[in-house]
Design goal:
CATH class of the largest domain: Mainly Beta
Oligomer: single chain
CATH topology of the largest domain: Elongation Factor Tu (Ef-tu), domain 3
Largest sheet: 6 strands, antiparallel, barrel
Number of domains: 2
Radius of gyration: 44 Å
CATH superfamily of the largest domain: Efflux pump adaptor protein, beta barrel domain
Number of helices: 4
CATH architecture of the largest domain: Beta Barrel
Helix content: 40-55%
Keywords: Coiled coil
Protein name: HlyD family efflux transporter periplasmic adaptor subunit
Organism: Psychrobacter coccoides
Order of helices and strands: HEEEEHHEEEEEEEEHE
């Protein structure tokens, strides 16, 4: 039994050694101006969290499932948010009723002002007539045609007309004050409507946020929460992978970095796939770091490396999102000299896309 285990370990060690020897031979066979390093394909991860606390009623996706933008992922219990929405709607309705009542009061105040103005006009006419009678009586008295008592009588009639005008004007002023008060009530009622609308919008938004949706297309990596769990605000519920953001991080020594720039052409070759994928340099570290354990350099004395990210084009990542998976191992290639042509073995070669099988009708 012990000998069989030793034999297995020897075989595994030989296979690993052969693999790294082959990788080194391939690297050494590259023309001058093209450098490579091994790495893993990575997909950008983003977590979906809840804005509000609640109990999870449904999780509508499974791990590994592709989702579309705005697709419903998780449904939280919405009893409380629905109650708040109904209360906000009732508050808004009451606010509208207060506006209607205030506007009805404004109409009544306007009618009162109109009546007061009509009375003013009528009393002014009466005052005018009384003034004419008084002036006529004074003239007749000067000619001894009427007595003093008749003049006094005309004077009393005139004074009564003046008092009536003043009373009508006071009534109009009172009606105007009432109208101004009603205007203030209308403004307050309209402010209440706006506040109620804001409360309703907030309640509607909260109720909608009980339905947690994907902000963009991707693939479900983990279901962090489960049905029946009570979560707090900000708790993560689902972790997604951005299948449209596929890249590989490679590490290159200093002497191969001098002319490399963001946007330079690159290639990715993934283990197990007879393909060569186009890529571009999207990031170059500004400082060197120690060689990661996952990187096998040609010279062990090269301890400081620069991290370089090479990214697949968006249209390629979209087209092959079902084939590309995070963690796939392979090699990344970049040109340190843009005048050097890519060798034949690194000519872009994409796999054929399998079309879905149509069921016979």
């Amino acid at each position: 039994m012990k000998k069989s285990w030793i034999l297995i370990l020897l075989v595994v060690a030989a296979a690993v050694g052969w693999y790294f020897w082959q990788q080194q031979q391939q690297a050494e066979a590259l023309p001058s101006g093209i450098v490579s390093s091994n790495g893993r394909l990575e997909l950008e991860q983003f977590d979906i969290a809840s804005l509000y606390p609640g109990r999870i009623e449904q999780i509508l996706v499974d791990e590994g499932e592709d989702v579309m933008a705005d697709q419903l992922l998780v449904k939280l219990s919405s009893t409380q948010s629905e109650s708040q929405l109904m209360a906000a709607q009732a508050t808004e309705q009451r606010a509208y009723q207060m506006v209607s009542q205030a506007q009805a009061g404004r109409n009544q105040a306007e009618q009162a002002m109109a009546r007061a103005q009509a009375e003013i006009n009528a009393h002014l006419e009466q005052q005018k007539v009384a003034k004419m009678d008084l002036d006529n009586a004074r003239k007749m008295r000067s000619e001894n045609l009427i007595s003093d008592s008749e003049v006094s009588k005309r004077m009393a009639a005139y004074n009564g007309a003046v008092a009536a005008v003043q009373a009508a004007r006071a009534a109009r002023a009172e009606a105007q004050a009432a109208a101004q008060q009603v205007d203030a009530q209308i403004a307050e009622a309209k402010a209440g409507v706006n506040q109620a609308k804001a409360q309703q919008q907030a309640a509607t938004s909260m109720n909608d946020d009980m339905l947690i949706r994907s902000p963009k297309a991707g693939r479900v990596e983990y279901r962090i929460a489960e049905v029946g769990s009570v979560i707090a605000a900000g708790s993560k519920v689902v972790s997604l992978l951005d299948t449209e953001d596929a890249y590989m991080n490679i590490f290159l020594p200093n002497q191969q970095m001098s002319s490399l720039q963001v946007g330079d052409d690159a290639r990715i070759v993934l283990d197990g796939l007879d393909s060569v994928w186009p890529a571009q340099v999207s990031f170059i570290a500004s400082e060197a770091q120690f060689t990661p354990k996952s990187v096998e350099t040609q010279n062990e004395r090269e301890k400081l490396m620069f991290k370089v990210r090479i990214k697949l084009p968006l249209e390629v990542a979209q087209k092959y999102k079902g084939l590309l998976k995070g963690g796939m191992t392979g090699n990344g290639y970049v040109r340190s000299d843009t005048d050097v042509a890519w060798p034949d073995e690194l000519t872009i070669k994409l796999p054929a896309v399998k079309m879905p099988v149509q069921n016979a009708s």
